[in-house]
Specification:
Layout lengths: L4 H21 L20 E2 L17 E4 L5 E3 L7 E7 L4 E5 L19 E3 L6 E10 L23 E5 L12 E11 L7 E6 L4 H7 L3 E4 L8 E4 L5 H52 L2 E3 L1 H7 L5 E5 L3 E7 L5 E7 L7 H10 L10 E7 L2 E7 L21 H21 L3 E3 L8 E3 L5 E3 L6 E3 L20 H4 L9 H16 L16 H10 L5
Parallel strand pairs: 1-2, 13-17
Antiparallel strand pairs: 2-3, 3-4, 4-5, 5-10, 6-10, 7-8, 7-9, 11-12, 14-15, 15-16, 16-18, 17-18, 19-22, 20-21
Length: about 525
C-alpha cells in the first residue's frame, strides 16, 4: 500500500518546529495580567479565584490579593467598598500605586488607618502625617478659600462635606451646623483632593533582592510559612521539556497510527467505489446495445405510460427510465398502420448505426401485435420548436444554428458514406432532428428509410414517401429524374432555408392544411421584388 509522503513528511516537520519553538519560548513561570497593558502580577501578589503554579510562589501573602474588574482593570482588594485601581507595581522597590477614579482617596475609607494595614503610604519628604475629621453640613460654610477643605467627592448640593484638622475648634471653623462623620489619619502632600496613593510593603523583603538577580520569589520549600527564597524558574526546565516532548511524541505517534488506519479504510472504500463504478458502466454499456423487451418490460420502463412526450402518424412517444437510471423515449407503434415495414426499417437500420449525430436505438419490443421502439432520451425535443423567429425566447442564435446545421450534415454524410450500405432517410425535416442537453442535433425516425449499395446510382420506389414541403421533386414525380441519395440532400437544403428564413414550412396566408415548397415561397418574393 502506498502511503502518501505528502502527508507524513509535513506532519514530521510540524512536530520538529513545535519542539524547537517549545525549547525557545517555554516559560515555567509566566506572569499573570488582567489585560495586556496592565501591571504584571506575581508573588507576593496573587489573583483571587485563580490557583497559580505552586512552583511559582503559590499561594501569595495575606492581604496581597488582587482581582480583575469587569473591564479587566487590576483592583487591590482592601476589604472595603472602595475600589483601588492598580496603576503600577514595582517589585524591586516594593511600591504599588493605586488610583481612585473619583479623586477621593482616602476620604472614602471610613476610619482607615494605613499604618495598621499591610501597606503604608510611601515615606517621602513631600509627605506629612495628619489626622482629619470629616463633617457633614446642612449648608455651605463661609470659610476662607485658603482653608477651604471641602471634600467634593463626598459632597452633595444640599449636604457639603468638609475635612478639618482633628485639633480644630469651633472657634476656628463655623461647624455648628455640621455633624461629625469620622476621623481619618492620612499622609499627603497638602492637596486634599488627590487621585492616587503610592503604597509600600515591607514583607517579604527578600523578594526585592530577587529582582536584582534576575530571579523570582516564592515561599521557601513551597511552604505557606512567611519564609521566602529566590529561585530560578528555568531550573528543571530541561526535564520538564523532555517530559513534554515524550508526551507529545506519543500523542503524535498515536495520531499517525489513527491516520494510517483511516487511510487504509478510505483506500479500501475508494477501491470498492471504483469497482462499483466500473460495474455500472458495463451494465450501462450492455443496456445501450439494442435489446429486446417484452410488453410488460415496456410498461415498467414507462411507469404504465405515465409521461407522454408526443404523438405522430405512426405512434405515441412516452418518457421512460431503465433500471440503471438511463432515461429513454419509448415509441409505441400503431398496430393499424402499415404491415410492419416501419418497424423493420427502424430496427434493421438503426441497430447498426453508431454516430454522434444519429439517435441511438436502445431496444425494441415485438410482443405479438404490440410493437415498440426504445430510443435514447433527448431533453430538448426537436429542432422544429427552435427555428422560428416569431418566438424570440426560443431563438438559439446564429452561432448555435450553424453548429446544428453542421451536425445534421455530418449525420447525413455518415448515413450515405459511413455505413456498409448506404442509408437513405427520406424524411429529413425539423421534426425528426432531436436535440440533446447541449443542443447537439441527432437524426431520428428511420421508418421510411431504404438501404442500397454505395455504387447504386438510383433507387426504385413504387410510391412517394416523405413529408410534403420537404420531398425532393423526383420522389414526388419521376418526370424530374431518378431517386437517389441526393433526395436527402434536397430535403436538408429545404431544412436550411427554413432555419435561415426563420419560418415554418407552411404558408400562413393559406389554410393550415396546405403545404408549399420553400423554393416557391422564395420565388414569389423575388417576383414581387420584396426584401427576403
Amino acid at each position: 500500500m502506498d502511503i502518501s509522503l505528502r502527508i507524513v513528511i509535513p506532519s514530521l516537520l510540524l512536530f520538529v518546529v513545535f519542539i524547537v519553538d517549545l525549547g525557545e519560548g517555554y516559560n515555567r513561570c509566566p506572569e499573570s495580567r488582567c489585560r495586556a497593558d496592565g501591571p504584571a502580577i506575581r508573588f507576593p501578589f496573587r489573583l483571587k479565584d485563580r490557583q497559580p503554579d505552586p512552583h511559582c510562589g503559590y499561594p501569595g501573602y495575606p492581604g496581597f490579593d488582587l482581582y480583575c474588574s469587569h473591564n479587566n482593570d487590576t483592583v487591590l482588594d482592601l476589604n472595603t467598598s472602595v475600589k483601588a485601581f492598580v496603576q503600577s507595581i514595582d517589585y524591586k522597590s516594593r511600591l504599588i500605586r493605586v488610583a481612585d477614579p473619583g479623586n477621593c482617596f482616602p476620604w472614602k475609607i471610613p476610619g482607615l488607618n494605613l499604618s495598621s494595614l499591610t501597606f503604608k503610604v510611601k515615606n517621602s519628604q513631600d509627605y506629612f502625617d495628619y489626622v482629619y475629621a470629616l463633617f457633614n453640613c446642612t449648608v455651605p460654610l463661609d470659610i476662607h478659600e485658603e482653608t477651604n477643605y471641602r471634600i467634593d467627592c463626598l459632597s452633595s448640593n444640599s449636604h457639603p462635606v468638609y475635612a478639618f484638622p482633628s485639633d480644630a475648634t469651633v472657634d476656628w471653623y463655623p461647624i455648628v451646623s455640621c455633624t461629625k462623620m469620622y476621623s481619618v489619619s492620612v499622609q499627603f502632600t497638602g492637596d486634599i483632593n488627590f487621585s492616587f496613593l503610592e503604597l509600600t510593603w515591607s514583607e517579604p523583603a527578600e523578594c526585592g533582592l530577587c529582582e536584582g538577580k534576575g530571579k523570582k520569589c516564592r515561599f521557601k520549600n513551597n511552604s505557606t510559612e512567611k519564609k521566602t527564597e529566590c529561585f530560578n524558574p528555568d531550573k528543571g526546565r530541561s526535564t520538564t521539556i523532555i517530559v513534554i516532548i515524550v508526551s507529545t511524541l506519543g500523542s503524535f505517534l498515536l495520531a499517525l497510527v489513527v491516520y494510517l488506519l483511516y487511510y487504509v479504510y478510505r483506500y479500501d472504500k475508494t477501491e470498492k467505489e471504483n469497482q462499483a463504478r466500473i460495474e455500472k458502466f458495463l451494465e450501462d454499456y450492455r443496456a445501450l446495445k439494442p435489446a429486446r423487451y417484452s410488453y410488460n418490460d415496456v410498461k415498467r420502463i414507462t411507469n404504465q405510460f405515465k409521461e407522454k412526450l408526443g404523438q405522430g402518424a405512426y405512434g405515441t412517444v412516452f418518457k421512460g427510465k431503465l433500471s440503471n437510471e438511463i432515461h429513454v423515449a419509448v415509441k409505441i407503434l400503431n398496430s393499424s398502420k402499415g404491415n410492419g415495414e416501419e418497424f423493420i426499417n427502424e430496427v434493421g437500420t438503426m441497430g447498426m448505426i453508431h454516430h454522434v449525430n444519429v439517435v441511438r436505438l436502445v431496444g425494441f419490443c415485438a410482443d405479438g401485435f404490440r410493437r415498440a421502439l426504445v430510443y435514447e432520451f433527448l431533453p430538448n425535443d426537436s429542432l422544429e420548436k427552435f427555428i422560428s423567429l416569431v418566438d424570440s425566447n426560443r431563438f438559439l442564435g446564429w452561432k448555435k444554428l450553424e453548429g446544428i446545421a453542421l451536425g445534421i450534415a455530418k449525420g447525413i454524410e455518415y448515413l450515405h458514406q459511413g455505413c456498409d450500405q448506404r442509408i437513405l432517410h427520406f424524411d429529413i425535416k425539423p421534426h425528426n432532428i432531436l436535440l440533446d442537453q447541449n443542443f447537439n442535433p441527432k437524426i431520428s425516425d428511420f421508418g421510411l428509410a431504404k438501404l442500397c449499395a454505395k455504387d447504386q446510382s438510383a433507387v426504385s420506389m413504387t410510391t412517394a414517401r416523405g413529408t410534403m414541403g420537404y420531398i425532393a421533386p423526383e420522389v414526388f414525380s419521376r418526370n424530374f429524374g431518378s431517386v437517389s441519395y441526393k433526395s436527402d440532400v434536397y430535403s436538408f437544403g429545404i431544412l436550411l432555408l427554413e432555419m435561415v428564413g426563420g419560418r415554418k414550412n407552411v404558408d400562413v396566408t393559406m389554410e393550415n392544411t396546405n403545404q408549399i415548397y420553400f423554393p416557391e415561397w422564395i420565388y414569389n418574393f423575388l417576383e414581387e421584388k420584396e426584401d427576403l
